[in-house]
Every structure is written in structure tokens, then in C-alpha cells.
Design goal:
Chain lengths: 231, 282
């Protein structure tokens, strides 16, 4: 299997100018992800797990080190130095991000949320609508909810919508940032089934989970973090 | 390879100053004035070395405090004010080969009428309040080359429908409309010439929340359906978060930070951007 993502000596810290504080978030992180693998990251709150994912998605600007990603469009690209345009392209076409919180445009229905992701890739509205409906049924979101605003949804429904939005683009790399954090056991089992399904379809995933039991038998490799370092 | 398209608008080192400058401030780069005005001669450097690119179908957000030069930059882009120095290239005007700021006033008028649209914060600047709404749109259509009254009326009705203004009110002057409706008529007028680039200067400021939501939804719809590139100036970070793909932050006439909108909001680098984000997103 080819390497899809190679994180080398990644450092990130935050300088809070107004408080005159300097916070080290992650130090010297090295992670290798091959195509089709599921890599799990565990660790206590504040150990820097989400920071790694946010650096890959470029919500945070990496400070030092490199994040080499094998893109379909650009070839090997260092995400830490990629231009904004390149990142917008990668986010639209190749890298998906699912967090425990669903962040959507206000006054947008569940179907429109998924549809919009397809339109962003350059497809027309009819195709987007078809794909959105297919994906929402696939993730078993009740058809009655399709034309409702997601802020009225339960945690599990929001999460399934969140994953549907990310998966409708068929990303090569899916980043999962504690998607099961606020879910009950039944919903967790559903998410696990979804992840197993995605894995069998060949999606490469990098996920953060608090629940170590949840990751048993799911991950190809597991990294444990403490105080910003992989131990 | 995708992701390397030519920008629809490219601005290089745009400068705008009010006043002639003096020996203390004329070489501003060397002097590094603390603020954007010279205490000796009173010259205001409203925009200093502004450079950015706008790509097809994207929304570029511009944020900054009052007096940071956001609106002056927009006025320069729409030729409401002469730039002091700088270059601008529009891909839909002479294939992006000519500096639009060096063109004759006739050519600038052509660019305004055919390539650009602008929506002002104050509808009184963008609309003739005593003309009918459809008349306001017709005014821009005539400038864009329309001559048949029937064509103008049909295009005007299409546009008013698009911005959700009831057609039976098309002959009413905007002064009879609410603030939100006036903004929507302005947007219809700005869209009348099918501009590839739309400039939106604080379009939701002063509107109440529900009306603001309508205008924002309309902007998003236009971008989605027509694929128009937009520059959205706002001091409201919630508006920028909702609309913009990329954002630039201005302070004292300069761009101090630019990046992906979520990166600017979650990992701001410059002390001012941090202050701005922390004070607004509580």
C-alpha cells in the first residue's frame, strides 16, 4: 500500500499576544498513514489530538515540520505549506473532516447541507440532489428529517448528517474528530458500523476517540498521546 | 491541473492617500508611521500596498475595524475614488492584460457597467430613491447597452423575482421600501449586467437580524446559482464566517493577515486579529 499521509516532526504552539502566553500544543509528531488504513489517536483531553487533525485540515497553521499528502490532483504536496487555493481544492475534493459538532449554514435543510457539498465540487443541482438523497438513505437518516433544519436533530442524527456530508464527496482521507463523544451506546454502535463500512470501501481514516474499547478491532495502528507528544 | 486557475481579479500594491504627504511621511515604508496618518502634515494613508487575488466563484471576506481602509479599497476598486498607485487586472477585461487603474475614464465607465457590480452599505448611494425600482435597474441596463424597453422590463422582472421583490411593487420607488428590500433592489441592480465580480460593502450593517438573514441567504444563493465571485466587506465576523472562503484582515490601511476563513477565526496569528476574534466570538 502506498503512503497517503506522512506527518514528520510536526510542531504547533499558540501565542496569545493579548495575554502574553505561549502554549505548546504538539511537539515532534510523526505519523505515517497508508492508503486504506484506519489510524486511531487516543489520549486525555488537552493532549493535542485534535490539534493534529486541525493541522492536517489547515484550520490551524502548522508551526514546524511537514505534512506530506499524496494528492490525486497535485501529486505529493506539503499541506503545511500549501496555498489557500490548494487547500480549498483539497477540502472540496479529497479531505473530509467530521467533528462531534455539526456546523452548518443557518436556515439550510439537511438535504441542502449534503447537496451543497456536491455542488461545491462542480456538479449540477440535479446530480447533487440525487447523491444527497442516496447518501442520507445510506446513513439511515429518517426521510421526514430531510427537509428540516439540523438544529432540531438529536446528537446521533446530527452526526450521521455530518458524516453524510463528508462522505458524499468520497474523500480519499477522512478525519474523524471525536465523532462519538456525546453519543449513547446504540448510536455509537451505528457509527462503528458506518466506519467499518467506509473502511471496507477503502476510505483512509484518521480518527480520535476517547473510548479505547470503541477502537478495539477497528484500528490498524493506534497512537497514544500525552502532553502533546506521541508515547 | 485544477486549483491553479487564473484569478478573475488581481490587485497589486494598491495605495490610496488623502493629502500630498510631506518629507516626514512621503516615504512611508522607510518612516514606518505608527498609524496610517502623518501627524506633521495630516496626510492619511488609507490603503497601503494592498495585494490580493480573487478567484472564480469564490467569496473573499474583508474584515477590520472602522477606519482600517476596507471601504476605501472598495471605492478604489469601483473607481469611486482614484487610486494613488497600484495595479489591478480583471480577467474578463482585455484578458487581464491591462492595468484597470491606468485606463481612461471612458474605459473605467465601461468596466463599471459591464464587468463590476457594487452594493453599498447605504442604499441611497446605490439607488435613486425617487425612481421606480424597475427604473433603477433599467438605468444600469441602459448603461450596459440595453435599448429595448421590453427587454429591459423582462430582465428587470427576472431580477426582482430573483431577489424576492414582488413584481407588483416594481413601479414603486425604493424610498417606500424597508431597509432589507432596498438592499435587495440594490443587489438586483448590481446583478443586472451579469458581472463576474460583485463588490459588497457592509450590506447587512444596520439591518435587523431576520432581514440580515434574508440578505445573507440571497447572497449565498446568487453565489451558488450564478457562480459570481464576490468581495464581501464586513466588520461582523459572523457574516464572514457564513459567507467567505478566504478572508483578509485589515488594520490601519494594510493587510495584516490573510488565510482560510476558519483558520483566521480559529488560529489567528496577528495580535489585532486575535483581539478581534476574541472580542466578537464569545
Amino acid at each position: 500500500m502506498k503512503n497517503l499521509l506522512n506527518i514528520k516532526n510536526l510542531w504547533k504552539s499558540f501565542t496569545l499576544h493579548n495575554l502574553q502566553k505561549y502554549i505548546k500544543a504538539i511537539q515532534d509528531i510523526n505519523i505515517l498513514v497508508k492508503e486504506g488504513e484506519f489510524i486511531g489517536i487516543t489520549g486525555k483531553s488537552g493532549s493535542g489530538k485534535s490539534t493534529i487533525l486541525k493541522c492536517i485540515y489547515r484550520t490551524y497553521l502548522p508551526e514546524n515540520g511537514s505534512i506530506l499528502y499524496q494528492s490525486d490532483n497535485f501529486g505529493a504536496i506539503d499541506i503545511s505549506k500549501a496555498t489557500e487555493r490548494q487547500m480549498i481544492y483539497l477540502r472540496k475534493h479529497e479531505i473530509g473532516y467530521v467533528s462531534q459538532f455539526l456546523s452548518v449554514m443557518p436556515r439550510t435543510t439537511a438535504k441542502e447541507v449534503v447537496q451543497q457539498a456536491v455542488i461545491e465540487m462542480g456538479y449540477d443541482i440535479d446530480y447533487a440532489q440525487f447523491q444527497a438523497e442516496k447518501m442520507l438513505s445510506h446513513f439511515e437518516l429518517d426521510i421526514k428529517l430531510w427537509d428540516s433544519y439540523p438544529n432540531t436533530f438529536s446528537g446521533g442524527e446530527k452526526l450521521r448528517l455530518n458524516i453524510a456530508r463528508a462522505m458524499v464527496k468520497r474523500p480519499r482521507l477522512l478525519l474523524l474528530d471525536e465523532p462519538t463523544a456525546s453519543l449513547d451506546n446504540v448510536s455509537k454502535i451505528k457509527v462503528r458500523e458506518l466506519i467499518e463500512q467506509l473502511k471496507s470501501e477503502g476510505t483512509t481514516m484518521l480518527g480520535i476517540f476517547h473510548d479505547i474499547d470503541f477502537m478495539q478491532g477497528l484500528c490498524d495502528y493506534q497512537y497514544n498521546m500525552q502532553a502533546g507528544e506521541v508515547i | 491541473m485544477k486549483g491553479f486557475e487564473k484569478p478573475v481579479l488581481e490587485i497589486k500594491n494598491l495605495n490610496k492617500q488623502f493629502g500630498k504627504g510631506c518629507s516626514d511621511c512621503c516615504d512611508i515604508n522607510e518612516k514606518k508611521l505608527e498609524k496610517n496618518y502623518c501627524p506633521e502634515c495630516g496626510t492619511v494613508y488609507a490603503c497601503q500596498d494592498i495585494s490580493f487575488e480573487l478567484y472564480g466563484g469564490e467569496i473573499l471576506g474583508v474584515v477590520g475595524e472602522s477606519g482600517s481602509g476596507k471601504s476605501t479599497m472598495m471605492k478604489c476598486l469601483y473607481f469611486d475614488q482614484e487610486v494613488t498607485k497600484g495595479e489591478g487586472y480583471l480577467s474578463s477585461y482585455k484578458d487581464g492584460l491591462m492595468n484597470i487603474f491606468n485606463e481612461s475614464s471612458q474605459q473605467k465607465r465601461y468596466i463599471r457597467n459591464h464587468v463590476l457590480g457594487k452594493v453599498y452599505q447605504n442604499p441611497m448611494l446605490g439607488l435613486k430613491m425617487n425612481f421606480s425600482s424597475i427604473g433603477n435597474i433599467a438605468q444600469k441596463l441602459i448603461a450596459a447597452g440595453y435599448r429595448s424597453v421590453r427587454d429591459m422590463e423582462s430582465r428587470g422582472i427576472d431580477l426582482l423575482n430573483h431577489v424576492n421583490i414582488p413584481v407588483f411593487r416594481m413601479k414603486e420607488p425604493p424610498k417606500n421600501f424597508s431597509g432589507g428590500m432596498q438592499q435587495r433592489v440594490q443587489i438586483a441592480k448590481a446583478l443586472s449586467n451579469n458581472p463576474p465580480v460583485l463588490l459588497l460593502d457592509e450590506v447587512t450593517t444596520g439591518l435587523d437580524l431576520s432581514v440580515q438573514a434574508n440578505v445573507l441567504d440571497l447572497i449565498k444563493k446568487i453565489q451558488r446559482e450564478l457562480g459570481i465571485s464576490m468581495i464581501v466587506v464586513s466588520h461582523d465576523l459572523a457574516v464572514i464566517r457564513m459567507l467567505a472562503n478566504r478572508t483578509i484582515v485589515m488594520l490601519d490601511g494594510r493587510i495584516i493577515e490573510k488565510g482560510l476563513t476558519d483558520q483566521i477565526l480559529e488560529d489567528p496569528q496577528h495580535p489585532y486579529t486575535q483581539q478581534l476574534v476574541h472580542s466578537l466570538l464569545v
